[in-house]
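Exercise 7b. Backbone tokens:
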């Protein structure tokens, strides 16, 4: 089945992913500025569509405005894909994306209504990461290079990678959940800190195996290098965020340097999650298990 490349749809998908990353950062800013209940009602803000943008209201209501924008953009993406997309699974992915952003909005509302219960707030944070990864995947699936097809290579039986590639995003998601729980005071930050070396080790294991044994595939090579770069950046930001919190633990209000490092840590955490998801997708697209016979039809299915 030939799928036509639509430049406008691809660029819109990239814009949606970018705006979703801004939404994740805006959510991190709300928590870092202790502005979670600056607006005590939902879905309106102090009974208004546009309250005075001052103090904590600026961060909380600003977050809601970005979320509304992303929600509307997701609706446009779904309608667009349902109208022009031939791949049935891609149409269903757009529907799932809309369902996720609706659920995300509901969790955000419940967080306010029930006064920041940690389990709802943490679920809200984790779903945001999953939704961002979904938008990144949609941007990839609508790209010209994806539609041009893959370059399948056989899986090395001594160094299998298909199953292992799934471990990285699963570990990152668990680490993000620990971080969200720590930020919402459900657990101590020591759990999140202790998990960081384990998650980093898994990411390096997957990425280095690809670079050592599957480097002839350009997609996998570039994806593995990207994952390593983002992950090491995330480690640095985590250390910086933790040290800045210690340095300003007695400050009356959150200090700008602490807020900056924390928000960047949240945003790059989302990028880490998305990059490991993309690496897993590309691994399953390009690496053919020896237990399945290779055929042109199978290669075409992997490409589409």
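Sequence design result:
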């Amino acid at each position: 089945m030939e799928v036509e490349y639509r430049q406008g749809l691809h660029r819109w998908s990239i814009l949606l992913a970018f705006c979703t990353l801004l939404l994740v950062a805006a959510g991190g800013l709300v928590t870092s500025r202790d502005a979670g209940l600056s607006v005590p009602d939902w879905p309106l803000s102090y009974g208004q569509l546009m309250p005075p943008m001052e103090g904590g209201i600026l961060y909380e209501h600003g977050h809601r405005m970005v979320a509304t924008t992303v929600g509307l953009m997701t609706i446009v993406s779904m309608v667009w894909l349902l109208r022009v997309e031939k791949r049935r699974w891609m149409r269903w992915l757009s529907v799932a994306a809309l369902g996720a952003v609706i659920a995300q909005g509901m969790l955000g509302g419940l967080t306010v209504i029930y006064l920041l219960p940690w389990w709802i707030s943490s679920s809200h944070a984790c779903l945001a990461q999953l939704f961002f990864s979904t938008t990144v995947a949609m941007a990839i699936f609508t790209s010209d290079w994806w539609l041009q097809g893959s370059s399948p290579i056989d899986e090395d039986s001594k160094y299998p990678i298909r199953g292992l590639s799934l471990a990285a995003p699963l570990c990152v998601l668990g680490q993000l959940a620990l971080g969200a729980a720590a930020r919402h005071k459900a657990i101590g930050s020591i759990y999140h800190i202790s998990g960081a070396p384990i998650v980093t080790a898994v990411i390096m294991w997957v990425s280095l195996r690809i670079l050592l044994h599957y480097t002839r595939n350009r997609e996998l090579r570039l994806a593995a290098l990207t994952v390593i770069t983002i992950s090491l950046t995330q480690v640095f930001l985590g250390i910086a965020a933790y040290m800045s919190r210690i340095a300003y633990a007695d400050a009356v209000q959150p200090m700008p340097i602490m807020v900056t490092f924390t928000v960047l840590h949240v945003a790059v955490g989302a990028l880490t999650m998305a990059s490991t998801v993309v690496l897993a997708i590309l691994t399953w697209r390009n690496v053919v298990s020896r237990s399945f016979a290779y055929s042109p039809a199978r290669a075409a299915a992997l490409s589409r």
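Instructor comment: The CA atoms of residues 9 and 142 lie 7 Å apart. Strands lie at 153-154, 287-288.
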